[in-house]
Fold this sequence. Notes:
- The model has no long low-confidence stretch (mean pLDDT 97).
- This protein folds into two domains: 182 residues, NAD(P)-binding Rossmann-like Domain (Rossmann fold), CATH 3.40.50; 94 residues, UDP-galactose 4-epimerase, domain 1 (Alpha-Beta Complex).
- The longest helix has 18 residues.
- A seven-stranded parallel β-sheet has the order 3-2-1-4-5-6-11, with helices on both faces.
- It starts with a strand and ends with a helix.
- By secondary structure, it is an alpha/beta fold.
- Helix 1 crosses helix 8 and helix 10 packs across helix 14.
- It is 42% helix and 21% strand.
- It contains 14 helices and 13 strands.
Amino acid sequence: MSKLLVVFGATGQQGRSVIDAVLEDPELSKEYSVRAITRDPTRAAALNLQSRGVEVIKGDVDDPKSLPVALAQAHTVFIVTITVYDDHLKSREFRQTRDVADTAVAAGAQYIIYSSCVAAESLWGRPVTAFDSKAASEAYIRTLPVKSAFFLPGMFMQNYLTNQMPQPLSQEGDETTYAIASFISPDAPMPLIETVKDGGKYVGAILANPDKYAGSMFFAATAMYSYREIAEIITRVTGKKTIYTQIPLEQWVSYLPPGSGKAMTEMMRWVESPGCFGPQSKEKVDLTVQQVKTKLTTFEEFVAAHDIV
């Protein structure tokens, strides 16, 4: 009998990628059956999962009463929470993760895979609320009587299709120059991951060898890229001139949603130094890449596949 893998956030980028990785792998698809948890089973993405043979159940991390049904008979559980940059970020994510993890253990689950972040404040003394919120949840999961492993995604390539999409800066004749803007150094290396295509590949490596990776942290990214390199790649691949513009912090904050400035600033300052995954970020990424047996997506390939500018 196959093991039941329960995936939270099943219609989001990370959850969907995990499901794809299992369904598309000849061995994993035999070893695991998949249950997708979503707040709205009637939405198109959920119906698509059903059409592929996935069990879809209504569940909500903010509704503890929905969790026992969602987690009944689970063997392995993938947990991801959505970061909302407000004053309740840390308490909300901890509560959501605790409720799911406790219910999973009560249901007899044997393994939890959690989408986490580095523990910036406890390990290195610098608070980064958006990271520490997940790190606190990870620490809690590690106290439970269940095996666990941790998937730490880098910066999403998908951000360059949304909030970091290059914007028109100037026009000279027929040529438009596009710009990516932030306040950090143009040469600060950042780990980039193609979340939708590749996120599940890392989780799939854990699922394929859960005992080996119990307790492990997967620092997930294809490679490190600076803003300068990102702009150069977009220019080279698209033929449209793109530059990185380093702007004052106050100007950058003014572009953010109200109430998110402090948490976002903490995060980007941390990404600049010591690095998204803390000291030795590149070495951590390189070691994690070696654990994945399938090809990962480069930023060049991502740009070529999407309409970025």
